[in-house]
Known about the structure:
Blueprint: E1 4-8, H1 12-16, H2 33-44, E2 48-53, H3 58-75, E3 79-84, H4 106-111, E4 121-125, E5 128-129, H5 132-142, E6 150-157, E7 168-175, E8 181-193, E9 196-199, E10 202-204, E11 209-217, H6 221-235, H7 248-257, E12 262-268, E13 273-274, H8 281-293
Parallel strand pairs: 1-2, 1-4, 2-3, 6-12
Antiparallel strand pairs: 4-11, 5-13, 6-11, 7-8, 7-11, 8-9, 9-10
Amino acid sequence: MDTALLIMAAGIGSRYGGGIKQLESVDAAGHIIIDYSIHDAIEAGFNKLVFIIRRDIEADFREVIGSRVEPVCEAHGVEVAYAFQSLEAIPAGFAVPEDRTKPWGTGQAVLAAKDLVSCPFAVINADDYYGKTAFHILHDWLNRPHGPTEYSLAGFILKNTLSEHGGVTRGICRVNADGYLTDVRETKNIVKTPTGASVDGLAIDAESHVSMNMWGLMPEFLPILEDGFESFFTEAVPQDPLKAEYLLPIYIGQLLREGKVSVKVLETRDSWFGVTYKEDKPAVIESFKALRAAGVYSEDLYSDL
């Protein structure tokens, strides 16, 4: 079965400070985090990659990333496509609010790829490292028969996603006895402690599952997401026209509460790490160095595919 991976990279330059060239390499060969995700996706069996970017970073993105990974993908029979998220791509009958400058969030980012995806697909952030296990379990799940409203989520373990440098926000999952998601609660300022984790001085379960925005979805989800985007413009945008965001986990959570979808939580015990600010880079470089030293990746990243 064909399976696609959507890589949300439209916000990469704005969050990191500048264009895509500001997302510096994480190893001596010049690879960035996206390279490791692409490696793991190809290894797991995904056969289409869709990069969701902005038009204004297209040239830099193709120079720094596209030109390197496209030959690798071609050699392994993996199609590469580009989708473009823009402020102006909104439902018919609505207008972009005056003074609005930022696109509309991860839900809109996925919609940017709707004409490029007709098979089961996964969604990830470009600047997060998820580990090999998550790609394998998601790919295996996507290759099994599912209904149009049956989805999945890579469930990371909270303690494996914490920072050594301060508090983080995580979507803590509630999971029933059958392994299905019942709720995601956004929790801010989670800090690592000698015994696990805490929030505002109160201990929380460091073995909890958390969402890191890595989803397995059916192609039938896309028209549902499009309908939700129109409702978002009707209900949320008038209340906060400059900052309202159509966020993928928030909308899926809404569908879940309404009983319209199911979400299977697929546990992975790999460590997650990411680069949002430049200060995160040294720890990420050391993490990749340790993975290569342990033989998880070769020094010539794509050579073992």
